[in-house]
Amino acid sequence: MGDILSIFSTKENAGLTKNLAYAATAQGMGFVSSIVMSLVIPKVLGLENYAYWQMFTLYSSYTGFAALGVNDGIYLRLGGMRYGELDKSGLKAQLSVIGISQVTVGALCLATLLASGISGDRLLVFLVVIVYGLLANNFVCLGYVFQSVNLTQVSSLASFFNKVLFLPLLASFIVLDIDSYISVVVAFILCQLVAFAYLLVCARDVIRARCGSLSKAARTCAADVRAGAKVMVAYYADSLVVGFTRMLTDWHLGLAVFGKLSFSFSLINFALNFIGQFAMVAFPVLKRLGEEGKREKYLEIRSVLHCFLPAVYLGYAPVLLILGWWLPEYRESLAYLGLVLPVCVYSCKANILFSTYLKMSRDEGLLCAVNVATMVANAALSATAILGTGSVGAASVGIVASLAARDFAFERIMAGRYGEPYVRDCVLEAVISAVFMAASWFLAAWSVLPVAAALAAFWWVERGQAAPLARGLAVRLRRERGSEQQYG
């Protein structure tokens, strides 16, 4: 019983390793859940219903706009504090103000939707997007509170419940032969509700506290919005690099093409969410370090990502063969996957490294400017490709080109602070990505041969970085395993 109740504990874990273990375990199960969702939902729903499901996931991912960045402002303001140091009364008042504001925005969105003339399944999709947004924004706000005070195990477990509880519901749809997207959407929202209830239980000290001044809380929210708006814009600008291309595909190339393209992005999104947990765990810990400690960790993380992230390209061929057998109607999507897989590499590097460090130094404006510039550049490329030629493949290449340019810009900014050479590394990463994209497009599963050769050459060129890192990681893993055996 004690072990079960411990999941509701607000006691902070010491150090980074245990938090990473929580995040890895929770997100590992979420990763499995996401894989099942990506592979089973398109099989169960069929092309049209799956396209509507993807439409829901696309537009629901932008409901955070309604929070105006207050969540990010809270995260920045409370980052590095301890849970016991929080003003529980003031926080309860602020959460109340945020909840009221979200209901107000939801009502305005509902009125606008009903007056828009949209009908049929699209109307139904946007209605459930509004419902989901009300729940998700409050969930994210409370989750950010726990993340900012280094109680990342709480938000990790909430994510765990949200993802894993969906599996038995999905299994029941298969048994009962339910093939309607709206059933999947309702189940998805119910799982989000359970995860939010878990966060509320963990925040019981805040819920029980006497509510502070709502007017003061409103002023605090306004300050958090001013601080967090830039981070919010930076985040959604990053998301819209891909999102704008998907929207244009829906509007101009039809629901079927949109569903197929969205399938390829769904295969990399869960990987991005999984790897992005490192940034969630690392932020409060890194923020407590001195400047020299931050620099050392930056150089270490950068080297690991530079040397080992491109290895993900080796996974394309087996994925292509397995999914081509399992979902033959999505073969075209798998061709797009080869073009967009570098998005995973560049976005992981940006989220784990550059975004984390720019937030720590409170350079949200700079982060925002770079992401907005990337979004605008990709919007121009996507519009040219889709409106001009009707080519989703060309639009996918434009996404990768935009992200590669952003990576170069971030590297230049950080090199000005830490003095690390970057041009050679950026060129090598771009060459590896280009080789993979060309090989996957023209050779399909046979691309594994030139890609493996290119990676071998890359690691040989970078053996001065890669070999010591590999040895260091191996030693660290053996040490961690020995500690677990000693104290386990």
Automatic annotation (TrEMBL):
Predominant location category: membrane
Cellular compartments per GO CC: plasma membrane
Keyword match Membrane: yes
Cell compartments where the protein resides: Cell membrane
Keywords linked to the UniProt accession: Cell membrane, Membrane, Transmembrane, Transmembrane helix
PANTHER family xrefs: O-ANTIGEN TRANSPORTER-RELATED, PST FAMILY PREDICTED COLANIC ACID TRANSPORTER
Protein name stated in the entry: Oligosaccharide flippase family protein
Annotated organism of origin: Gordonibacter urolithinfaciens
